[in-house]
Structure formats: C-alpha cells, structure tokens
Amino acid sequence: MKPKPGSSKLAAKSWPSAAQCLRAALLLGTVALLPATTAGLAAMDGRVAPAFGRLFTVYNLVKANYVEPTDDDKLVTGAINGMLASLDPHSSYLEGASLERLSTMIDGSYAGLGLSVEEDDGGVKVVSPMHGSPAEKVGIKSGDFITHLDGKLIYGEDLDAAVAKMRGPAGTAIRLTIYRPGREAPFDVTVTRNVISLEPVTSKREGTLGIITVNEFSHDVGKQVFEALRALQQQAGGHLTGLVLDLRENPGGELDEAVALSDLFLTQGVIVSQRGRVANENATYHAESVFVGDAARGLPIVVLIDAGTASASEIVAGALQDQHRALIMGTRSFGKGSVQTMIRLDGGHAVKLTTARYYTPSGRSVQEGGITPDIRVPQLTDPDVKRREELTLRESDLKHHLVNEAALSDKTLEEDRHPDPRFQLTPEQLKARGISDFQLWYAEQTLQHAGAGSLALRR
Q1: I need a labelling partner for 110 at 20 to 30 A (CA). Which of 2, 50, 248, 443 fits?
Q2: How far apart are alpha carbons 104 and 208 in whole angstroms?
Q3: Is 336 considered catalytic here?
Q4: Candidate list 8, 116, 262, 311, residue with the active-site label
Q5: 386 an active-site residue?
Q6: 9, 125, 223, 336: the active-site residue
Q7: What's this model's pTM, rounded to 2 decimal places?
Q8: Are 90 and 29 a contacting pair, CB within 8 Å?
Q9: Which helix (H) or strand (E) holds 15?
Q10: Segment 111-133, tens digit of pLDDT
C-alpha cells in the first residue's frame, strides 16, 4: 500500500481518530482536506488569461447595469458555483450550510428526519434514509422525491434551505409530500423529528448465518465490522456457516475505511487503485492483514448491493468480487468511480474537486458502469420494483458525468442471463410466506444451501 495521510491499517490494529482521518470518500467522492495556497490558486505566469478578462468584464457590466444593486459575495459565489458545476456532478463549492452538512455526514449528530438528499433538476431527491431513522420508519425510500413540506412547494428551492426546514427540535412533526416513481399520485407522510446519531454498522444473527449491514463508511467502520463479526462468532459458539455483508443504500464514506473493511477478508493482493492527472493522486492500496488474516476464517460471503451502493461501498464490492472472496448479489451499483479532494480556502469555505478515478483490482473502472452483481436479484418485496428499476438514477444519468474509458451499454449491463424462477413471485406471495426483504432472504438461502467453503460462492 502506498501510504496516505490518515490511512488506517487493520493489520497493525491502528484505528485513526476523527482528527487523523483526512481522506474521505462520500457519495460525492473521496475527500482529502488540503490547504489552498495563494501561489497554487493564482499562478498564471504573470499574465491574466483572456478568459479571466472576460469574467472581469461581465462582473463590471453586472455591477454597473443590473436593475438592482448587486452583492459582491453573491456574484463571486455564483461564478465559482457555475465554474465547478460545468466540470462534473461532484465538484462543488462548499460554504456555510453545505460545508456543515458534509461534516455532519462524516461524524455528526443532529435533530431531524435522518435523510440523505440531493438536488435533482430542481427537486429534492432522497439518496437514502438512514438506518433506524424516523424517515426510514415511515417508509421513505431511496429515489423518492420530496415535493412539499407542510403543504408548501419546495421545487426549485435551494437545497440547503429545504434541508434546514426538515431539521428541527426532536419531538416536532413535519408533513412531507412524496412523489415515488411507480406510483400514480403523490402521497403524504408525517414524520416526527428525532436526534439522529449516525449508526454506520448494525449486525444480527439468523441461525448460523451472520448479517452485517454497513450503512456508510464513517470513522472506525472497519473496526466496528471487525467487532461485530467477532460478536456474531461468539453468539454462534464459533459455528457461523456464512456471512451476508449488506452494502445496499450505502452512499459511501471514507476511503481508508473501505480499504480497512476489504482488508478484513483479504490476505493479499490489490484492494483498489486510483489514478489522476497529478502524480501525487496516484496510489495503490494492498491487503496487509498480517496479524488478523481473513477475519471471517474462510466463511462464504455474500455481498448485497443495489443502485444506492456508491463510491466507497463499490470499492469493497469490487475488491471482494475481483479477488473471488465473495459472491456479489442484488442489482447494479450506482457507478461512482471518481475521487474528490476537498481543498480548504479558509475556515468557512472549501472547494471539492474531482482529482482522480479509482479502479478495482482487475483494473476495471467503476465510473458509470458500477459493479455488476454475479447474481442479479431484484427486490421483489417492493411493490413498485419494476417501475422503480426503470427510473432508477445512477451516475451515468447525471449531467456532465465523467465518461468511462470503455464503451458501456446500460441495456447490456442490466441483462439477466440466468433468471431464477423464484423471481416471478409477487410481493403478496412473498408477504404470505413471511418474507419482507427478498434480496436478503435470497442471500441467506444461497448460503444455507451452498455449505461452508463452497467454491460456488467464489465464482
């Protein structure tokens, strides 16, 4: 592994503190906290480029002729936002509420609904509800659009303003109007705000199977998964026969934690590499489990993914797939294969800039195409599954997204060459059988029938 600032090494059992974790990979990318220098920002060989001359000319025209007086900060912020938005969907200017939201996603807590949202053509789209949050409990799903708050339209409103309205004191309620692809009409849900403490890892045991759900890759996730696995093994009296690693609806998190989690189950080889235009953005991360080895001790593993599986979670799925350590199951992941660097301008302003792409051990770029599961398993317990799959938003649907070096076809990537007859079951039939999560049930059935050590689980 090429060392990086703040890198966490499971082999040495050295878990970085929040202050040490400088590299982070959110749904919006890998974030390295770097200082901006005046020379680095303004070096232009002593000349002002013609494009900057045009920018200054437009600025002066607006200041002199616009129908109302203009604020300098507003004009500069608008110019910066436009500049970065023209590059790709993940480069952005962060200040105030947007910078605070990024910090909260990593290690904060707040009173609100527990929703990760993004702006999509003027609408507020749900990326994912947080595990155990008030939003999840009332049935809000990834891909939903929030159109009204307490009956007031929020379409076209600033995203940070909409987020601020959804937050509030614990115990207070708010009515959300939801448009869900696949439903004929919008519907209302009332959600009671609560204190949201991020819960990145949860686990449970089903007989001799362990199920570990990773909701995001925040600080110490690798350590928490390690501890959860040990607890499950103890609960089973050391007789676990398989493990489900659930990465569905996981928008990403810290790159180091994705490497640490992959390292739990790999004893050697490449986990992920990244390549950028600047040499210091090139790095290769290797498995280094010298002391821990394979923490699952050779147990067969199924990794569950879906369209909400993005960025850091795709790194884990790609590493375990290419290293033939796990069977990947579910639906194709989001396809977020670029790395962002967050450059601090000052205490309250930062730029998040795409600086590299990352690649799986076999050299595949995740960008656009995502991770294709070894076995495609639709979420049949979702009554809107067919329509939702048709309208699912992925990286390839975003404006100005980076193009994969290889030509990709969504139709080809979605082909299911060996569908299981059980995929014809309806939500009503599954409910009658007591199955509330078909993808998880299918993973458990696969593990139970495969038997420990089955080579079928390693493709």
Answers
A1: 248
A2: 36
A3: yes
A4: 311
A5: no
A6: 336
A7: 0.73
A8: yes
A9: none
A10: 789 887 878 778 898 877 877 88
